[in-house]
Specification:
- The chain is mostly helical and 121 residues long.
- Helices cover 85% and strands 0% of the residues.
- It has one domain.
- The longest helix has 21 residues.
- 24% of the residues are buried.
Length: 121
């Protein structure tokens, strides 16, 4: 589980750096997620990452932080299923209209979070 959790951290960091370098990737992802019920795939992925972090927490360097991140991911995945689909699409539309500079900064934030996941677990 520890290796899988570290792999998720690396993938999150790589995604964040990709968004920082190519913000249009994020806008395409938002457009892709707005179609149909694809947003629920993100909810499943968030729940999966949360479970992996929770299961890897006993072996991690800072277990309480790994537990906290796992709970946050798990809850955010559950919230995706609890919210109205049209409301979620509205949120995606709002984020898709953000300026490129803001998307780049969000990409840096995501990359930093991925590095945090990798280093804590």
């Amino acid at each position: 589980m520890l290796i899988l959790a570290k792999l998720f951290g690396i993938l999150i960091a790589v995604f964040g750096l990709t968004v920082c370098a190519l913000p249009q990737v994020m806008q395409k992802l938002f457009d892709f997620m707005k179609e149909g019920k694809r947003i629920y795939g993100a909810g499943v992925l968030r729940c999966l990452i949360g479970l992996v972090l929770l299961l890897a927490s006993p072996q991690s360097a800072i277990p309480i932080t790994a537990i906290a991140m796992g709970v946050v991911f798990l809850l955010s995945g559950i919230i995706v299923f609890a919210c109205d689909l049209e409301k979620l699409k509205g949120v995606l539309a709002h984020y898709g209209e953000m300026p490129v500079l803001i998307l780049r900064l969000l990409g840096l934030l995501v990359a930093a979070f991925g590095i945090l996941v990798f280093s804590v677990v």
